[in-house]
Amino acid sequence: MTYIRNIALLFVLLGLISLVAWSKTILRSIEVANKIHFAELPPLYLPDAKYVRLITLGFNNVASDILWFNTLSYFGKQFRAGKDYRWLNDMCELVTTLNPRAPHSIEFCATMLSWSAKEPEKSNLIL
Q: Which pairs from 44-52 meet CB under 8 Å and 24+ separation?
């Protein structure tokens, strides 16, 4: 049974990694076609947490960690370039919904939503 679970986890991880890589490839091709900066592009797609839970087959923490790295990358690009945090709340909600027991993501999201994004109401909802 453990062997089957490990194989399922491997397929879920490979699927999530390929999804992230595929979305970045599409965004780069859009950037070249439109001659705009990559940092100005919004995320391609943010799925609802209930659908992500179906795909991950119970490995919500793994999906949350992968999306957490994507959220940090988005915040860093916007902090350095455009300071346009319109997708930060949606990304933080998805990460904290999938793994509500990760204090590092909850604290970071709440702090950055209130200070950098100037959205204290949404910060309070995450807390």
A: 46/87, 46/90, 46/91, 46/94, 47/94, 49/93, 49/94, 49/97, 49/98, 52/94, 52/98
Cα 78-110-108 angle, rounded to 5 deg: 65
65's enclosing H/E stretch is: helix 60-80
Q: Each residue of 1-26: pLDDT tens digit?
A: 677 777 777 777 666 676 566 555 65
Give the model's confidence band at 108: pLDDT under 50 very low, under 70 low, under 90 confident, else very high. Answer: very high
Q: How far apart are CA 111 and CA 44, in angstroms?
A: 25
